[in-house]
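User: quick one
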Amino acid sequence: MSDDIAVGIDLGTSYSAVAAVTEAGASPQVLPNEWGDRTHASVVSFLEDGSVLVGNDAKKNIITNAESTVYSAKRLIGRFFFSDEVKKAQAVMPYRIVEGPNNAVRLQVRERDLAVPEISGLVLKEMKAIAETALGREVKKAVITCPAYFNDNQRQATKDAGRIAGLEVLRIINEPTAAALAYGFGRDISQKICVYDLGGGTFDVSILEIGKDVFEVLSTAGDTYLGGDDFDDRIMTWLADDFLTRHGLDLRQNRFCLQMLKEAGERAKIEVGRDGVASIHVPGICQSPEGEVLDLRGKLTTDQFNRMVMDLVQRTFKVCDEALQSARLTAGDVDAVILVGGPTRLPIVRNSVRHYFQKEPMSGVDPDEAVAVGAALQAHALLNRNAAEYGQASYLLDVTPLSLRVGTVGGFTEKIIEKNTPIPIEKSKTFTTSRDGQDRVKIRVYQGESNRAEGCELLGEFEFKGFRVAQRGAVQIQVTFEIDSNGIVNVSAADLETGQRTSTTISLSSGLSEKDLRAAIDHNAELELARGPRA
Amino acid sequence: MDAQFLIEVETLAGSLDQLDYFAILKLPQGATPAELKAAYYRESRAYHPDRFAAFPNAALRDLVGRIYRRINEAYTVLRDDRKRARYQADVSGPDRAAKLRFTEVEEAAVKDEQKRKLEEQLGQTPNGRKFYAAALVELEAARLEGAERALKSALMYEPENARFKEQLATVQRELDKGRAKGDVFKIK
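Assistant: Done. Structure below.
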């Protein structure tokens, strides 16, 4: 057995966690930080002295140090600047979101432009530090999880974030698949299961068939615009509207008030889920024009809350329908339902899931820790050549969540690889020149389910050069599309007749260039993580 | 990892392009869906790239990757009833060597063929469709001569339409029968 170690990291929208298998045959452990916290807010606060504070302490700075504290960066990772999600974030986030090169997103913090993977890279750096302290050794390798419904851009950016943090990313695995692994590993079961993963910012459903050591994902579906944050938003809106009618002041107009409101919303959600009723009191949330200091007060009952969020909960079941249909199953065929993510603690979610599947969701799977635990199992398996020999083998047969397409004339697209196809997979398509003497061929690659290019996500434009120059139609270029085990797309091309590989250039990509990536790695290494005493 | 396995991997990777999907999954052509799944799991346990992730031998990992991608491709096609039926016909036919890998291009060709057949049912040109529709109305009303006229007109626009020709032949046969009896208008 090698002396190496690799950790599993659940890089969440709101909270992250890190876990590891410390020795062969041992069960994976979630690694706590020095204060005993097992989950850590995915919040990065840039302090005045140039250091960065990450985690639950940084979360407190969202209000006091709003412009220099970045949270929910995962909502922005791998997105183009013109996307709806970025526009929405610009309106509500206290930190500055600006446009970078190639339609990329940059966050402006303390006079510096940071790419989104750099922020996630700092969260990962903190996870790495926590693991190193807990294990008492250096950690260089990791498996990082991402939502199953993440597209290629988002996966690539997540992988970049790992590299920026100084980690060798052994694999990007899907969060529901990791949770399924945590549930079924070493239990020798044969079941069809559904993983219902409602996180802070995304919702995923995966249907898996477990056959002892084989975990076959039958289908996956999701909504990258639906999560616990949306539940908070509903409470916020209700509180703010109520305050507006009482005092004639809109709390959403001021970023400081908005953050206090957001915090109150989140707290009320957790309280109402736990106790059935939440009393909200934020003293001194703002001042009236007359100089009177006003408090925010409210009482939220379960009934009220359920009515506010019922449509969001219903939306998750549309996604479940879609996943079951792709797997050619009905809700009754599912042997076990696993809940993952903080919001699944809410009674309304649990009850609705029970009602939909006509089955009690599995207990014994920790919704906050299952993903990190599964990632740690996979990290351990990838590092050890002989895992099979001591019964540690498990095979994840995952799928691609979105269809891969190429752009054709008139703004249409043509499907190359169907969604829910097992990965890794490759498929070739032959293109031909359309003009005499043409020396390059450009293709645009998309992911999505629409026939129209505008309904899909652009992954990039690939340009092939270096094939024979001849009359139009005489040269045939075979383009091979490969989706690897990380769900990341690779495209290569060759002259069909001569077999000569052509050179490939990617333009119009949202990712970081190699040069930017190196600069980011250096910058990340320079930044020091603040480890102040806890108040 | 023993030398035996290395040789096995190299031989298999080298012969991928000569094998059909059944051979890749080591299955008989008549395999049931349950057998297909069992074979897929068995081959996954043997060739899943994760098993070899920690091996320093990059060439081996590359070969295993190639094999496993083909295993996934085979499973994807064979688990789909429609694709499997077509694939099975392809590899049993004379073009076997060229059709060992299922391509969506052929899929598109099949769709075009279906579309063409459907269009032929109704006509491919606006005028062809118009006269053919008129012919059907005449037939419905048992006016055979009208139907014959309309079908002949339709065929002027689509001389190759097999469906039209067939219909015209039927109508003309009916007409001949009627004429033989000298009772043109009472044919049902």
